[in-house]
Amino acid sequence: MTQEEVEYQKEFYQNASQELQERLERLDKDEGLSPATVGKRKHELICAHRLKFGRHPFVCSKCWSYLPVCVCHLATRSSKEWKYKNLLQVLVWTHHREWGLTSNTGSILGLTLGNNDASSHVVDTTHIDPSTDENNPCRLLMKGLPKHDEILQNILDDSARKREGDDESHGVDHDGSTLVVVLWPSSNPENAITLPQLRRELEASDPNNCFDSNPHEEVSDAMVSSSQKKIVLLAVDGTWRNARRMVAKLPSHVKRLDLDESTIRWNDSKATGDENSPSEDSSSMLSILAPLRRRGPSGKENQKTDLKVNASSLDNEKRQVCTAEAVVAALHEVGAIDTELAQQVLYATQTKVDRVRRYRGKVQ
Length: 364
Hints:
6-stranded parallel beta sheet, EC 2.5.1.25, S-adenosyl-L-methionine, DTW, coiled coil
């Protein structure tokens, strides 16, 4: 960026922040509103500001890396092939405090798996929020932002609605036209789903599989529509404490998917990101994110991902992975994405961690 562009970006962000502060102060002075209403509206304003302007004037609005070390160019589209792209959608449900953090990896999923435009990384107030595109295969939703909360609520409502004429469950007790599966362990087998069950749900909903038995049969749009059940994979993105609270708010009919260690570690020989990345052996790391985000004993607030129910502390330490790793592992295991695409996402994630770490001065 030129010096003029730097000054413009700083002034642009400062003006937006000043406007937000003035609106928050006006709410505090509004005697006609109850404290609860004031608090709710202030929270909504802060979330809307974070979506539109980000957390910092010099952080990329797409990959959430510092602008000088942006990784958006790694979000190539040539190899992005989903086997079930019309049936399966990933929702990265991000806590508002997590949104825009340079240490976040969920943003990489939106770039590499979704329809997000990575061509411009400077805040653009005219840019259409890709999360509002219901056909986007990977959407990032901010918890606390009204329009994003509404999107998720509509999906949850649809998943609870009785699916007319749907008598087959394929081993999963579910009636809705949308099957919502959250990446989170469950101690209750009634709301748990296994990876083989999820794969069967995908195969059963795939019209290419439904009509393979008679390739000469004319397939109408109505037949295809009636055979399809939309499946949403929900990834909760936040610290352990915040993520646990978010999951607790989900309705009981939402299925929970736990990943065992062999699934999580499917790609222990993953690429190490930048050629100039730190010399540590990445395969020895608990997670791609481990060098960047401090990790403590299982269950502490800085815990980034879900823990296994009734597991030992050591086992849970080994299971700590970032959001991108968990989603990629699940998609790869059920056959939704191939190894090439899965490794591409992990490479972009690793590169972001390496670059941000160096930019922060954590590498000598």
